[in-house]
Design a protein that fits this description.
388 residues; mainly beta; Neuraminidase; five-stranded mixed β-sheet; four-stranded antiparallel β-sheet; 25 strands; 10% helix; globular
Length: 388
Amino acid sequence: MFKNLLKILIVLVLLAITGLLLLGPILKSNLPQYPNLDKCISKGTLELICDLQNPEDFAEIPNEDAVIVSQFAGLAELNDGETKVGLLSHLNLKTMEITDYEISFIQDNELGIGDKDCKPYKNLFPHGIDTFKKIPASTDEKLSPFLEEAHLLAVVNHEERDRIEYFLFFSEDIVFSDSAQKELFWVGCVEAPDFNTYFNDVVISDEYGSFYATHQYNKDWNFSKLEFFNTFRLDTGFVYKWDHIKGFSKLKNSGGAWPNGIEMIDEIVFVSYRMNGMVSAFNGSDRKDFKFRTYLNGGSDNIIAKDNVLWVAVQNSDLGGLTCMRPDQVQCATPFSVLEINKDLKLLNEFDFNNVAFGGLSAVYPYSNKLILGSYKSDRIAIYEITD
């Protein structure tokens, strides 16, 4: 019986693939052609901050009206096979001014953050980021007496082997010298469990740098394999948990189609699954799913938690998105949405955007009556003012 069912399934899959191949040219000719808006000029709905490189994720700076911006290295598939070096930057939310961070390396420190044998990176290819307000108490004289004022930043870094990098940073009222330059202090790292790991996003769970990170798919999968898995919404990855004592393990029951953004509220872990319109909450061994869209009507990218509310960046994933895959195209005005949901996965608000001077939405940070919008393939940050 099982063998017969398996044969039927294989036949159906082959028929579906054949149909897609035969209909491909017809579908392509009928796809919606979203406008190319490479010029960074506002069309009125959004205020723009220009001349950036893929401002993919934001992380809150405690006690300051500012966020850290991950200027994403970019997907090689969208850059003629090239992976570009990225940046970490400071965005002042009052003035909307961007300042790039300088990075100093503090090796052989006594903080106990990360793996003790992990060495400084060669290049920084940042992706998802997260901050934590506290760090472990220490008598390390290299940074004291200000350590009690330090915060922790974790950064996904796509080196040859993916890593999580750790930096200390300080709010703007802590000044070390006469220089006005913003600075991050590298203090440790954790290498991925194997060379195939592809981290997307990270959330810190304690002051020692313990974290949860989404493993989106295996690095050696080519685009065709990814398309096959995405078309049939098959599991491509899961969530890793790293503990500063026990090391890596897998978050139980976290498998899904393209796990992407990750956040925490209290002890609950929230994960967005890009290819099936779902956000899931993990509380211990329990999983709760919130299905907010069908596959072709949108998938969620990053999640940012602010004041016990989740802000979810949703990209419209209809087939028209295939018209935006050219490496030479900076900006493609695909539709996107912002969801505001509570920790019980109840929808509070939804904001929908169409034909604006922006591309694939990847992150949303709420500030005052504004939404700060970031993108995984873009030269701009957008600001949307919420009106009654």
